[in-house]
Amino acid sequence: QVQLVESGGGSVRPGGSLRLSCKVSQSLFYFAEMGWYRQAPGKQREMVATITNAGAADYTDSVKGRFTISRDYIENSVHLQLNSLRPADTGLYYCMTDKGALQYWGQGTQVTVSP
Predict the structure, then answer these.
(1) 3-class DSSP state for residue 30?
(2) Is-contact 82 66, C-beta < 8 A?
(3) Which of 17, 30, 37, 104: disulfide with 2, CB 3.0–4.6 Å?
(4) 109, burial (CB in 10 Å: exposed 0-12, middle 13-18, buried 19+)
(5) DSSP 66
(6) pLDDT tens digits, 55-111
């Protein structure tokens, strides 16, 4: 069983920064791709950023140039650096990976951006 535990969320003002972390219960080498997703109130969950074992990263258009995803193989963690935050970035941020036919999700960490 794979467990994902997110942390680092909080409340910030527009323009602020946060660093989210996702601790994985197994070595990151087992997972070809890791991702961060978010869900705002009343909206569907959306992909924010993904990163492969080779280090290739992909971002949704609205966060390009502001967010950075990274993998830490020593800590078995995936991080998401959030800069220049906007109110539209508010939501519950989830870490996700898959192994075989199964998807694994964390419980989420809340990010709130407001004046």
Answers:
(1) helix
(2) yes
(3) 104
(4) buried
(5) T
(6) 999 999 999 999 999 999 999 999 999 999 999 999 999 999 988 889 999 999 999
